[in-house]
């Protein structure tokens, strides 16, 4: 298949390299330094699925013969990416590889596809890290789910999933909205590493932080239930895990499922990666999505409100917070109860954000 990839970051870069290795005709849509490096050195993939240097075509917009356009930019860059390539993507299927809940609707509006025709959501479930403009490292295994925005495009979603399956294990799903919510639960691992400057694995092990994460999951499921979400399965989080969270066992999901799903190589998650590069984060489309959903049914999600505020604070000040400070800011009652039996956090010096790309 002739596939164009807009956004060669951790997810888009990994998929572009893996699709190239599988024999697909992949074009990297890139400019400036990224385009120069991919053209001269290739797109270099390392990690859990082996090493591969993809020698890709490089262009500044999808070519006319593209059969599928992958959009893997951050949520805040969606408008610029889609509007600038609107003519080139006209009448072509678009697979969004983004976090949050609102991507498909946003893309349909920007591309003038009011009924959502030709808009597909790709839920990437593999952990990866962008370590340079043309270098991506997979830090664990995982697959993809492909959902469709238009009710009559199940067959088209299945065809896209078959192509993606050449790169990573992929299947199509009928319940796109429920799957997006379940993926949002997985993406709850972003905020605390970004606030504390640690990895997903460290957060899931830390006795203060994993409790906060568990409470965030519990509140998100509570909000999803109130808005009548039918949670779907996305591999890392399945309906059985949602049921465990709903029944009061969120901490088991954090220390069991999430702690192991991201592999053994410390994974900083995408929000921390953005902070370290001095880029905007997607927190308003992650925890912020729960806040907006809660407001739509006259509820509040205070832990998620705190996560949004703290990520913005770290982005603005360049100062990571200790685990104990995070706990105090989020839930003083929990801090008072737990500080007697734990230390102050994974680091206690409030160290500054640095420019490293991985742990």
Automatic annotation (TrEMBL):
Ranges for domain Ketopantoate reductase N-terminal: 3-149
Biased amino acid composition, Basic and acidic residues: 346-359
Can you give the residue ranges of the Ketopantoate reductase C-terminal domain? 175-314
- Sequence segments annotated as region (Disordered): 337-359
Key words, A-Z: NADP, Oxidoreductase, Pantothenate biosynthesis
Establish whether keyword NADP is in the entry: yes
Q: Which Pfam families does this entry report, sorted A to Z?
A: ApbA, ApbA_C
> Pathway it belongs to?
Cofactor biosynthesis; (R)-pantothenate biosynthesis; (R)-pantoate from 3-methyl-2-oxobutanoate: step 2/2
- Return the EC number: 1.1.1.169
Concerning SUPFAM superfamilies, the annotation shows: 6-phosphogluconate dehydrogenase C-terminal domain-like, NAD(P)-binding Rossmann-fold domains
State the top-level EC class.
oxidoreductase
Q: Which reaction does it catalyse?
A: (R)-pantoate + NADP(+) = 2-dehydropantoate + NADPH + H(+)
Q: What does this protein do?
A: Catalyzes the NADPH-dependent reduction of ketopantoate into pantoic acid.
Q: Which family does this protein fall into? A: Belongs to the ketopantoate reductase family.
Q: What protein name is recorded for this chain?
A: 2-dehydropantoate 2-reductase
Native organism is: Gulosibacter molinativorax
Q: What is the lineage of its organism?
A: Bacteria, Bacillati, Actinomycetota, Actinomycetes, Micrococcales
């Amino acid at each position: 298949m002739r596939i164009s990839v807009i956004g060669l970051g951790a997810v888009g870069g990994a998929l572009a390299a893996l699709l190239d290795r599988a024999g697909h005709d992949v074009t990297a849509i890139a400019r400036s330094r990224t385009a120069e490096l991919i053209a001269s050195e290739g797109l270099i993939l390392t990690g859990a699925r082996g090493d591969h240097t993809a020698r890709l075509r490089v262009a500044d917009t999808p070519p006319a013969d593209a059969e599928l356009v992958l959009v893997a930019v951050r949520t805040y860059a969606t408008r610029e990416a889609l509007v600038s390539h609107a003519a080139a993507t006209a009448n072509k299927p678009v697979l969004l590889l983004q976090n949050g809940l609102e991507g498909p609707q946003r893309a349909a509006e920007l591309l003038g596809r009011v009924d959502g025709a030709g808009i597909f959501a790709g839920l990437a479930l593999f952990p990866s890290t962008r370590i340079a403009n043309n270098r991506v490292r997979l830090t664990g295994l995982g697959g993809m789910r492909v959902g469709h925005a238009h009710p009559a495009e199940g067959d088209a979603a299945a065809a896209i999933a078959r192509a993606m399956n050449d790169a990573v294990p992929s299947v199509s799903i009928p319940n796109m909205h429920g799957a997006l919510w379940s993926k949002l639960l997985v993406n709850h691992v972003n905020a605390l590493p970004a606030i504390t400057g640690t990895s997903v694995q460290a957060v899931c092990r830390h006795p203060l932080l994993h409790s906060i994460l568990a409470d965030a999951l519990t509140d998100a499921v509570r909000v999803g239930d109130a808005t009548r979400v039918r949670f779907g399965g996305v591999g890392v989080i399945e309906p059985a895990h949602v049921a465990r969270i709903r029944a009061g066992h969120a901490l088991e999901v954090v220390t069991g499922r999430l702690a192991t799903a991201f592999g053994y190589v410390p994974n900083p998650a995408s929000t921390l990666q953005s902070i370290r590069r001095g880029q905007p984060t997607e927190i308003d489309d992650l925890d912020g999505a729960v806040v907006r959903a809660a407001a739509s049914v006259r509820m509040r999600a205070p832990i998620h409100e705190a996560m949004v505020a703290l990520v913005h604070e770290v982005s603005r000040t360049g100062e990571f917070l200790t685990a104990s400070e995070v706990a105090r800011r989020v839930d003083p009652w929990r801090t008072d109860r737990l500080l007697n039996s734990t230390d102050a956090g994974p680091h206690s010096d409030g160290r500054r954000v640095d420019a490293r790309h991985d742990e």
